[in-house]
Amino acid sequence: MKKTSKKTVTVRKQLKIRLENTLTMRKNTRNFRPTHSIVVTWFKHLNKGLFGNQLPAVPMYLVRMTNDWGRCWANWDNRKCKKGTYDQSVIPYDKTDVSFAIEIHTKYPTFRDFVETLAHEMVHLYQMTVLKDPYSNHNANFYSFKNKFKSAGLTLSRTG
Ligand SMILES: [Zn+2]
Q1: Which end of the chain, N or C, is more open, meaning fewer C-beta atoms within 10 Å of its C-beta?
Q2: Could you list the residue range(s) of the whole structural domain that residue 87 is in?
Q3: 160 belongs to a structural domain
Q4: CA 64, 139, 132, 47 torsion: positive or negative?
């Protein structure tokens, strides 16, 4: 079993307390609409508490979505390439410049739904930027965060 440092436990505990306080404050909020500054603030808290501040600050957009609560995308310029140069299901990190962004839906049933969606998309960002996982989907790399989420009082689910 891998030893978890005392410092890591402390930042996770801080995140858990911050989350509990915010959830208490917003317990009667229905239809929570995040602002860009709330998204940026919670990105920082989650980055510190779950990802050891390893995630880069990427553009974050509030987008009204029909089928998703959130998205994390990798974008690369393959428009000038011959069709079929890249397999679109595999991210070509070593072949070209890839940029990243997170999109967050404009409205959530509760604050918890918002924060768990953001944290979910941040796991994908970790897969893309730290692990350089060519698939960055709901694979073993993704679920390796399950216990970290749990110790911060968050649920890591497939949807989000
Ligand atoms: Zn996902």
Answers
A1: N
A2: 6-151
A3: no
A4: positive
